[in-house]
Design goal:
single chain; alpha/beta; 7-stranded mixed beta sheet; 5 helices; 7 strands; 19% strand; globular
């Protein structure tokens, strides 16, 4: 039996992967994200946490998603990390602390670029649990996210910083558009069919910048 004071415990969906160039990529990713929003219950609001920097082409996926999503004017989400105000290694912990202080029990969707195999470039993955920023470039940074979305932007395993700097912007932009549009679609559907995780949400895109 379910009542307003009970959170249903459900297993999170299995990891999901789609290639950004697939014809139905937005539809498939939107449907999967809708499923996740139904599963992750008991949260008072949604935070989209976009990690990366505009100073590296490959590492700009997160801020590109944040800026694109911001332009879509979602009315049920707080966005941290855009091209104008990126969340990167220097201010990551500060921003995590800011989210903890500003939001009560949020559903945090973390987004970041990653490196992978050659045949996986362009693929977008959604998985349960926090993201580990900087893992691809051997950095130890704090984890964040209820679940996370990553996009494989280039090949990993050798000279990661150089690879990120020389990633094709076209691929990153297209991946960012697919992720942002899919998130917007999924959250719009959630608004039309509200559950406990999406009550009393306010429109806001917030970030207190820190010098890089």
């Amino acid at each position: 039996m379910i009542n307003d004071n009970t959170t249903v415990q459900m297993y999170p969906p299995n990891p999901f992967r789609v290639d950004h160039s697939e014809e139905q990529a937005v539809d498939l990713l939107s449907q999967h994200l809708q499923q996740r929003l139904r599963v992750y219950r008991g949260h008072s609001e949604i935070v989209v946490f976009c990690i990366g920097t505009d100073r590296s082409t490959g590492d700009a996926l997160g801020p590109i998603v944040g800026s694109h999503l911001e332009r879509l004017y979602p009315n049920n989400v707080s966005i941290y990390g855009t091209l104008d105000s990126p969340v990167h290694a220097v201010n990551l912990q500060e921003t995590i602390d800011l989210v903890k202080n500003r939001h009560r029990n949020p559903l945090i969707i973390a987004i970041d670029a990653c490196l992978g195999q050659l045949n996986s470039i362009g693929k977008i993955t959604v998985a349960h649990g926090p993201i580990k920023p900087g893992a691809g470039v051997k950095k130890q940074l704090p984890e964040v996210g209820t679940f996370h979305i990553t996009g494989i932007v280039n090949v990993g395993g050798f000279m990661e910083y150089f690879v990120l700097q020389n990633t094709r912007l076209s691929v990153v932009m297209k991946m960012g558009e697919v992720i942002a549009t899919s998130l917007h679609n999924a959250m719009a559907q959630a608004k039309d069919h509200p559950s406990r995780y999406i009550t009393n949400l306010q429109t806001k895109s917030v970030y207190q910048s820190a010098s890089e």
